[in-house]
Write a structure and sequence with these properties.
alpha+beta, Immunoglobulin-like, Aminopeptidase, seven-stranded mixed sheet, six-stranded mixed sheet, 12% strand, globular, Cytosolic_carboxypeptidase, protease, Pepdidase_M14_N
Length: 1188
């Protein structure tokens, strides 16, 4: 056939030129025409493909046969030039079209044809270099798009063909480059990778990889990528270690680092690091890395790269390798079980508590011997890390010793206030002593003889109460006198007077006589004084009666020691006192102390934390969500790595230890002092790492070996203006809101004395990341090789020698609740409000669980009014089943205060409902500083299906009360359990819906014809309109299997309450509405509790419209609720919102960690709702499951 027969462009009318050429080529294939014609046609097609994007599109368009024609020609032609032309065309098509065109070529069978062509070409002698270059180039591009490519290549024998080509042509860079690219693709298959390794590919690549050179940088980069892929195989990694290649890689990396001054070869440097990353996935590789001084090398080079932002990939990869190679350490604890033990009345037969009791005492439960022998590949480690932790929600800890704290005056108010127990002997020769007002002084071994005498005090009793609150002392109080017996003077009482909320001076008054040396290790330091006691404090009278209770250290700066007249001392107090205008109406320091005496704790707390004594009022300023500085996490990780590199700089001194009651508190003045021996406190051990850096370890829940999240502890002995770093090193969750703007809380005693008694968000350089402390399989639910996580934050204190408290969230103790309930009871109007406080039951440790009933008194004794009173619908509320979710108590406080207020709306609400409220379902857990469990070591919100009256009394009796109400035809209209959520923002609800659950789980959801009243959505929708912190789009109404034993689901399913909810409040802040960008505070939480009440009144009006004569437009309100934005694209397709967006800087650099954040979030979704499933709902609930 002559060239004249080729169809010209002008002769084409309906088809483009390329279509004609392809048609001509197809005809040539069928007629076995002359090879020169085929060569000519393919060259024309190549020219068009190189010059016109339109041509490339047409050839790969849907329905086009162009690709089949080319592949058929390639398979059948014997002409070399035609083959090269077609290969060039395919390269053009794939190179310009990205992944879609490569996939198109694979779908047409291109992989097999090209591999066969490679086999045929390899048999020719001599081999055509151009042909080999083209075949390898195109295979390297389409191989990643073919899932079976590795198997096809191995079956066809292509592996050795490519490998031999490289071996024989090491100096021919043009041919070696595509061959290496194809080897990289082969290596994606693990079997291929091992096979290539056996044939010497690793050794071969190290002949190509070398020190810095300006030549052949492209080849070097490809060789490194190939090596990194090959070394993911454990077999190849061991081979590399055996041949000393770890040291070689480090040497090469340092060479490139030193010579690449303009950073033009960053990809090569990263390639070397990727190879190191792969080889250190095995234990031998990590050991070789350490032995080759790899930690120091990568640390130094990465620090030098910090100044150049474009080198961040090198810094991040180096950080990942160093963290992975950091030797796993055990937590410095004798056991991971709680420091405190409570003997259960009944031992469960199965479950984690039963396992805990059956564990032999000689077993080391802190770390497994095999934990550091994990030969896991990265993939296996990721798989493990992405699984849910045994129970993803952590618990708080309680750390409190039985030793009283010292009371010292050295020109400052300092020390605890002790109250003797009933069994204590009255001290020595007292003057006229008032009954019960005796303090026993523990003798200081360092004191002189005078200090060793017992002391007691005579207090003139004065009733200065007004409506249950201590009133301020007037100048006339100065005339009241008493006598001081052998050591305790009136200054103690004045100190107490100063710290009542109604009398907050800006500084402590002078007039104190120092007596006794500061010694925090001593129970009490005695004060000597012979002066009269002219100034009395009402709270002092209460404090010095009953069981021993003492306040923590009280430090005031700038207080001078003077022996001036007492009248001057008193007047200075009066002048300095500040009235707190917005003080908490329910707080009474005296009453709090009285209640604490009757609170039972496992460690038998003898101290009261000042924040709980002073009380908390919301600060008069907003606290925005903290913006995370770029690179903060890797900076912290680098500082951790410095511990290994510069071990001589590490102090490693224990400064607080609950497990060792004999530990001595260091005497040095620049060491911080720690304490958590008070109600709800949680701190187990503190180790000083550097001068101003401390590692903190939290205590497990009692009768448990995990749940580390809640913390509440005291710090003193600080210097102002110094940045102190605190690392809480035994957290278990894989992520936290500390990575997304949440700050811990701090309370300063100095600030409280200066009329600022509030918790504030503090801390900079906050992040949450995986550390090098290994968790035993006992602690990780049977999984091995898991690590703990660190919360780290840095704080600078404003005052010298202050006493500050830190907490995970705003503390709310059991004693605080009892105080608030007593204040509410004493302040209400019994003619208008029916308020009754009963005891639901006693807890395991003997504390009472309060049950509150609130409604309006009947208008009169008329029959109609009594009937209306008795027939009001019930609302049942509960909170604080998880002790660490203190925000739930603040929301409940808002609810209780609103219900007891004189607000007309509140009166209408009381007239509409009878409220049954259990404000604290887990008193024991709260008292003892647990995070999630009760003293039974179990999550009480997983016990509702079959509560044990001996182990879960509060759940047993709460459920019994609900069953009783249902039996007497008073089924509650609404049940709501208040909770806190650690991983999500805003306030939202979980409800129960059969239909939404079926739609969410069933493959045949579209045909689901379940009929269901949609009233369960009404209350959340109302709240989304009236409560600024509430977010409807975060609500979910799916009932998951793992949540079947929670209060919400059991009350819905067994009791029959349709509107059964869990209301989750964020621990962090809001990302929508009025409070967007702000961290949540107690004001907002209490507001949410009040708004919940308003929502209930609106619910009443919506469900009883005729009674309220509402306009007809509002009657359709509930129907409108169902028409809210639904991200449900189909009944079975739910769009799950991510818990949080990713950072530009990766949240976790550890290769062993969950790099796939999305998966992890989906699996660990709800931290706190009573069940692990609600947590999953956390995401699914956030999934905007609204129904049409």
């Amino acid at each position: 056939m002559s060239k004249l027969k080729v169809i010209s462009e002008k002769s084409l009318t309906n088809n483009s030129r390329i279509v004609g050429l392809l048609a001509q080529l197809e005809k040539i294939n069928t007629e076995s025409a002359e090879s020169d014609t085929a060569r000519y046609v393919t060259s024309k097609i190549l020219h068009l493909a190189q010059s016109q994007e339109k041509t490339r599109r047409e050839m790969t368009a849907k329905g086009s046969t162009g690709m089949e024609v080319l592949l058929t020609t390639l398979e059948n032609t014997k002409d070399l030039q035609t083959t090269l032309n077609i290969l060039s065309i395919l390269v053009e098509l794939v190179s310009a079209g990205g992944g879609r065109r490569a996939s198109f070529l694979v779908a047409k069978g291109g992989s097999q044809i090209l591999l066969q062509l490679l086999m045929n070409a390899s048999k020719e002698s001599p081999q055509n270099e151009e042909l080999m270059v083209q075949i390898h180039s195109i295979l390297a591009k389409i191989g990643p798009k073919d899932k079976k490519f590795g198997v096809k290549a191995r079956i066809n024998g292509a592996l050795n063909i490519t490998l031999n080509l490289v071996k024989q042509n090491l100096q021919n860079h043009r041919l070696v480059l595509p061959c290496l690219q194809l080897l990289r693709v082969y290596s994606a298959n693990s079997v291929n990778s091992v096979s290539l390794g056996k044939n010497g590919v690793v050794e071969l690549l190290f002949k190509i990889i070398g020190p810095f050179s300006k030549k052949n940088s492209g080849l070097m980069k490809v060789a490194l990528d190939t090596l990194a892929a090959l070394l993911k195989s454990k077999t190849n990694a061991r081979r590399a270690v055996d041949r000393g290649y770890v040291q070689v890689l480090l040497t090469i990396y340092v060479d490139w680092h030193r010579h690449d001054n303009r950073h033009r070869n960053m990809l090569i440097r990263k390639g070397i690091l990727q190879s190191l990353k792969s080889v250190t996935n095995i234990k031998l590789g990590r050991k070789a890395f350490i032995d080759a001084n790899g930690m120091k090398i990568l640390y130094n080079t990465s620090q030098e790269c910090l100044a150049v932002r474009t080198l961040d990939p090198l810094v991040n990869t180096s950080s990942l390798i160093m963290r992975k190679c950091f030797p796993k350490n055990r937590l410095p604890l004798p056991t991971i079980k709680s420091s405190f033990h409570f003997q259960l009345p009944v031992i469960p037969v199965t479950g984690p508590v039963a396992q805990l009791y059956s564990l032999p005492p000689e077993v080391d439960d802190v770390v497994d011997e095999s934990d550091d022998n994990d030969e896991l590949d990265l993939e296996a480690e990721n798989e493990t890390e992405n699984e849910d932790d045994v129970d993803q929600n952590f618990k708080d800890y309680d750390l409190i010793s039985k030793e009283p704290k010292p009371f010292v005056f050295e020109g400052k108010v300092r020390g605890p206030i002790v109250v003797p127990t009933a069994g204590e002997e009255a001290s020595g020769n007292s003057g006229s002593l008032r009954k019960g007002v005796v303090r026993k002084a523990n003798v200081s071994p360092k004191g002189d003889e005078g200090d060793k005498k017992s002391a007691c005090m005579d207090l003139a009793k004065e009733d200065v109460k007004d409506n249950g609150r201590t009133s301020q002392h007037q100048p006339g109080d100065q005339n009241r006198t008493g006598s001081c017996a052998q050591g305790l003077n009136h200054d103690i009482v004045k100190a107490l007077d100063r710290i009542t909320l109604q009398n907050l001076p800006s500084q402590t008054a002078p007039g104190f006589t120092a007596g006794g040396k500061k010694d925090y290790g001593l129970p009490l330091s005695v004060l000597t004084c012979t002066k009269a006691c002219p100034h009395m404090a009402a709270c002092g009278n209460v404090l010095f009666e009953g069981r021993t209770v003492q306040l923590g250290k009280l430090c005031c700066t700038g207080v001078e020691t003077e022996d001036d007249e007492d009248t001057e001392s008193t007047s200075s107090v009066e002048q300095a006192s500040v009235e707190v205008s917005d003080g908490p109406t329910l707080h009474d320091s005296d009453l709090y102390i009285e209640i604490v005496k009757n609170t039972k704790s496992v460690p038998e707390y003898s101290e009261v934390a000042y924040p709980d004594y002073f009380g908390h009022i919301p600060p008069p300023f907003k606290e925005p969500i903290l913006e995370r500085p770029y690179g903060v996490q890797r900076t912290k990780i680098a500082q951790d790595i410095e511990r290994l590199i510069h071990q001589s700089d590490i102090i490693d001194r224990v400064v607080y230890d609950l497990d060792n009651p004999n530990y001595t508190i260091p005497e040095e003045g620049d060491i911080l002092k720690f304490n958590s021996k008070f109600e709800s406190g949680n701190l187990r051990k503190v180790i000083q790492i550097r001068k101003n850096e401390y590692d903190l370890i939290l205590n497990s829940d009692i009768n448990s070996n995990h749940y580390h999240q809640w913390f509440y502890f005291e710090v003193s002995g600080m210097r102002p203006g110094v940045a102190y770093r605190f690392n809480i090193i035994n957290c278990e969750k894989s992520n936290s809101q500390f990575n997304y703007g949440m700050q811990p809380l701090m309370y300063s005693v100095q600030e409280a004395l200066n009329a600022r008694p509030w918790w504030i968000r503090v801390g900079t350089d906050i992040c949450y990341y995986k550390n090098h402390f290994s968790r035993s399989s006992v602690a990780a639910g049977g999984q091995k090789g898991k690590s703990y996580y660190t919360i780290t934050f840095t704080v600078s204190f404003p005052h010298k020698d202050d006493v500050c408290y830190f907490a995970y969230h705003y503390p709310y103790t059991y004693s605080t609740l009892q105080m608030h309930l007593q204040k509410l009871e004493s302040a209400h109007n019994p003619q208008q409000i029916y308020f009754r406080k009963d005891v639901l039951c006693e807890t395991l440790s003997g504390n009472t669980c309060p049950l509150v009933t609130i409604t309006a008194m009947p208008e009169s004794n008329y029959y109609e009014h009594i009937c209306q009173f008795r027939n009001r619908p019930y609302v049942f509320l509960s909170a604080r089943v998880h002790p660490g979710e203190t925000n739930a108590s603040w929301v409940m406080k808002g609810t209780l205060e609103y219900l007891m207020s004189n607000n007309p709306t509140a009166q209408s609400l009381r007239e509409s409902y009878i409220f049954k409220i259990v404000p604290m379902l887990n008193p024991d857990g709260v008292v003892n500083g647990n995070h999630r469990c009760s003293l039974s070591g179990e999550d009480l919100n997983r016990q509702w299906q079959s509560p044990n009256p001996d182990l879960h009394p509060t759940i047993y009796h709460a459920k019994g009360l609900l069953q009783y109400l249902a039996a007497v035809k008073h089924l509650p209209l609404v049940y709501c359990d208040y909770h806190g959520h650690s991983r999500k923002k805003n306030v939202f609800m979980y409800g129960c819906s059969i239909k939404e659950t079926v739609w969410h789980t069933s493959a045949n959801a579209a045909s689901c014809d379940v009929v269901e009243d949609v009233g369960y959505r009404t209350l959340p929708k109302i709240l989304s309109h009236i409560a600024p912190a509430f977010c409807m789009s975060s609500c979910s109404f799916v009932v998951e299997k793992s949540k079947e034993s929670t209060a919400r689901v059991v009350v819905w399913r067994e009791i029959g309450v349709q509107r059964s909810y869990t209301m989750e409040s964020t621990l962090c802040g809001c990302d929508q509405g009025k409070y967007k960008g702000l961290q949540i505070g107690t004001r907002e939480l209490e507001e949410m509790g009040a708004k919940f009440c308003v929502g209930l009144l609106r619910l009443k009006r919506l469900t009883s419209p005729l009674e309220y004569n509402l306009p007809s437009s509002l009657l359709d309100f509930e129907n409108d609720l169902i028409e809210s934005n639904c991200k449900v694209t189909s009944p079975t397709t739910y769009v799950l919102d991510e818990d949080e967006p990713r950072f530009l800087e990766e949240v976790d650099y550890s290769a062993e960690s969950n790099d796939d954040l999305d998966t992890e979030l989906a699996e660990n979704a709800g931290d706190y709702e009573p069940s692990a499933q609600e947590e999953v709902l956390s995401d699914s609930e956030l999934s905007r499951t609204y129904l049409p």
